From TrEMBL:
Species the sequence originates in: Vreelandella boliviensis LC1
Lineage: Bacteria, Pseudomonadati, Pseudomonadota, Gammaproteobacteria, Oceanospirillales
Molecular function, one GO term: peptidyl-prolyl cis-trans isomerase activity
Localization (cell): Cell inner membrane
Family classification: Belongs to the PpiD chaperone family.
Keyword Zinc part of the UniProt annotation: no
Keywords per UniProt: Cell inner membrane, Cell membrane, Chaperone, Isomerase, Membrane, Rotamase, Transmembrane, Transmembrane helix
Protein name listed in UniProt: Periplasmic chaperone PpiD
Transmembrane segments: 12-37
Domain PpiC positions: 256-355
Coiled coil feature spans: none
Amino acid sequence: MLQSIRDGSRSWGAKIIIGVMVAAMALFGIESLFGLFGSDPNEVASVNGQPIMRQQVELEVQRALRSGQVPPEQERALRNEMLDQLITQQLLSQYAEEGGFAVSEEQLDQLIVSLPEFHDQDGRFSAEVFRNRLAGAGYTPLSFRQELRVDIQRQHLQQGLAFSDFSLPNEQERLAELQRQQRSFRYLILGGDDVNADIDVSEDDLQAYYDAHHERYERPEQVRLEYVLIDRQTMAEERDVDEEALRDVWREQNRDADRRVSHIMITFGNERTRDEAQQLAETAREALDSGESFADTALRYSDDTASAEEGGDLGVISRGFFGDTFDEAAFGLEEGDVSQPVELDNAFHIIQVTDIQGPTFEEQRDELARQVALREVDDEFNQRVQQLIDESFAADDLQSVADELGLTLQESDWLASDDEAQGVLSEPGVMSAAFSNDVFEEGYNSEVIELDQDRRLVLRIAEQRDATLLPLDEVREDVEMSVAAEQQQQALREDAQALVANLRENQQVDVDWLEANNLSRQADTTLPQLIVQEAFRMARPEEGGSVYRMVELPQGVAVVALDSVSVGDVDEQMEAFVAQMAEQLRAQSVLQGLIDDLRSDADIER
């Protein structure tokens, strides 16, 4: 609960689901099966004498990671954030208890059994559903029930604080008026090309800037990684594949593809006997073998005169169109192949496939080669992965592992925990493994990391260096650029201030103004937001006059001349939304004020 002080990965819905599970366990007497946080918890912080255990922090970290909203590589930073959240929650829980906010056992039970997440298909509370969800949530019955209790307490506290603050009708009207207000102004942006002063960076300037901004030139703690990668795709690329095996796969994949066929049909039963028809069909097949075209042979021998006039063409057929016997012959042929005589429905048929409705063998060859090679190296890949698991677990290095598996030991550049790694090191879970306790602190090889179905990786720390302040000579170029930019910005600032002073004294100034007319606070505009925001902070000008102000931009400065302020059209929907947001911000501000006050008075050790 208390959504405003929770990370997005710990939604109220998720909390309730977990809470319901624990409470159901409590209702059905299952608490005795579980321990709260383990047999030997370590205290990582205390809040007014109440401990926060390491296991609590780890549970919150794992839940956030499982939610998918926090990348695994941010695990170390997440740990500090979660500890800070637990401290805040502890403070609010203590305040709620001191204020008499209480939740009875009956209230907890009623809440748990009423939640639809734990109902069966008949809409009734199910102990089995409850147990199954609790088992996968990472909570024990006691820990969940206690956390659900304090969560409700904090929710009541937050609601009480929100309802205790309000705005008067005239305040809401004033807010709505400001919201729909429109302003017209002119502006001028000054950049590097507008600087009148010379930029001169001295050695003293460099040293002074470097001394004042040490934090910019601190190199974080870094590691250089060694890693071994097994890649099924690479193994497949190195495998030579038999050509006939490729054709077999192609035939299999295309055996049901629609195809265009021609035939020569020789009937029996009336004018000729079966033996006579078979003999004639064999004669026709011999004519084809001797080089006669299928079309000519069809005209000479086929009793299907309609198709014979079209070279025997029957058009495009699908499997099952002429029956199993015909299919067995037609769908077993490659394009251009001719069958032996096939007996079907009182006739012998000689079939030719003239076109297959799909990619040709040559078009599919490369993909087929990849598929066949992957299949052929599958067992070898699995064996090498198992060998990698066995060898890396016992080895004190990775070079021997790479040598044993015939792989190349690869190395990274220097990396910090929050750097954007490249290549396979950028895959999810890799950097978090590199900075895990076993690898980073103890110096062990990592466990085998499954990057995807085709790649497995093991890494270790090859070299480690502590955070340090880089010497000036090493960062001189960056410092020079920063000092020059600062001097340039100061020169622009002085020019803008002089321009504003002249404008305020009504002196004649030659300026190419840009205009923004009747702009509202929420207008969709390409103007820099800093200029728009400043224009709405400026005092209303007198009728026919203007007010002037300099605006600092990230690079450069701007001069704004506010010319007029007008009342925009009423938008009831927008005004209601703004009023609601204002109430929420006010409530959050009150809550944050309480948190800050509690922190300032609390005895917090971490």
